[in-house]
Amino acid sequence: MPNVTFFLLAQRNDATAESTQEAFACEVATHYYRQKQRVLILCASQKQAERMDELLWQLPVDAFVPHNLPGEGPESGTPVEINWQKPDRLNRQVCINLQQDMPAFAAQIRTLIDFVPADDNGKQQARERYKHYRAAGFSLDTRPAENLNETPNG
User: Fold this and answer.
1) Average pLDDT of 96-120?
2) What CATH number is attached to the domain comprising 94?
3) Quick one: how far is CA 108 from the chain centroid?
4) Segments forming the whole domain that contains residue 80
């Protein structure tokens, strides 16, 4: 049964809710990559996936996280895959969800990471995803983004 962790994101004055979420998604991907986990960053659109690709070249500033978009990289894929749709092969332990809905293939992933943005609209969408995860019988946890290193599986 998948474990879902919702991270509560604080709004930074110098960033949009989306950029805050994307930067934190890079931190989460790096966290799991360092634990030798295969990660899928599931984006809302191809445009967001391309932004995440560029962002992972910059963050973290102290390391390189091997990543690719669909159709790029080695045949077996890189440790971190960035996609906006279900991959052809779902060989990932961790899914970082940046979409507005619960992924249709969520039950096939061991660890799901989701976010609760600081803005009201983002919070409402997160509440809906939370309800869907709960109805599916997933194990749920909510924690502040500052507690990344205290994740149940990580």
Assistant:
1) 94
2) 3.40.50.10110
3) 15
4) 3-146
What tens digit of pLDDT does each residue of 82-101 get? 999 988 778 899 999 999 99
CA dihedral for 122, 128, 132, 133, sign (positive or negative)? positive
50 inside domain: yes
The pLDDT tens digits of the residues spanning 36-87 come to 999 999 999 999 999 999 999 988 788 889 999 988 878 778 999 999 998 8
pTM over 0.85: yes
Structure token digits, residue 33: 């990559």
* Strand arrangement of the beta sheet that strand 94-97 belongs to: 67-68, 80-83, 39-42, 94-97, 111-116, 3-8, 139-144
